[in-house]
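Predicting holo structure, zinc ion bound.
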Amino acid sequence: MAEDFPKAVMDFERRFATDEACRDFLRALRWPDGFICPRCDGRSGWRASRMRWVCGDCRHQTSITAGTIFQDSHLPLTVWFRAMWYVTSQKNGASALAVQRLLGLGSYKTAWALLHKLRRAMVRPGRDRLSGQVEVDETFVGGEESGREGRGALTKALVVIAAEENGRGIGRIRMARIPNAAKRFLHGFVQQEVAPGSTLHTDGWASYSGLDAHGYGHRVTALKGQPPDAAIVAMPRVHRVASLLKRWLLGTHQGAVGVDHLDYYLDEFTFRFNRRNSASRGKLFYRLAQQAVQIAPVPFDRLLRPQPLVPGGVK
Ligand SMILES: [Zn+2]
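Done. Tokens:
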């Protein structure tokens, strides 16, 4: 299917005025070549009603939203679509409070859950790893550095960042919260997020040693005994990303992000950052909708549960 997305808000409002129109759009994303039964992969289904599809092979009944993040939502698709449009069309995204007001949602909790579900769709399943020359470093987010102690839920979290070098600029990025800067977490992150054959650029921290054994080139800039600014000069890209991330958490989200949910904010930041040069905001909307029909539903109680840090510190 040719990528067909609204270019501006007037176009968006005209196209997605009804739930039916939203559902048709999702159907084209999920079943571009026609119905596929989620149970038996049968392709001979038919539409039994406005919402319901029936598989001709196994008689399984399903809907276009079953098995996606839209499943079991009490919100109309028109509201979901407007939330997706809002978080992708705003340069810095939006807080739950802003979305609650904008969409006239009854509670903050509803807006919060809506945005968190969308964040789950911001990591493309099976995405490529970074490659080429890649800077890697850790930074603390929150805590004393934020200057907002006692205001929000922030306490200190350690975040490891990888940024591709693109000439003097930055290519794609990845980031993850890790429990500490031990070797197994840093190596786990690198192996998950950076393709072997790439050349890593790190400081002289001992936990980064041994990465060459996993197929990576490794350039080390020793910073011990150097002034604090030396790290920024040595690895300008990860430091630029870290400072933008912190500004975003304190600005758009008013420093109210808890460490337990930080991982999903990192996903949102990464989603937007890696598409910052996209010619059209509508294209970001399209990507988000496309990924939203590819990922499983997340019940509300699972949204509330803290994100467990798996070995390696990565998802
Ligand atoms: Zn079937």
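The first helix runs from residue 9 to 15.
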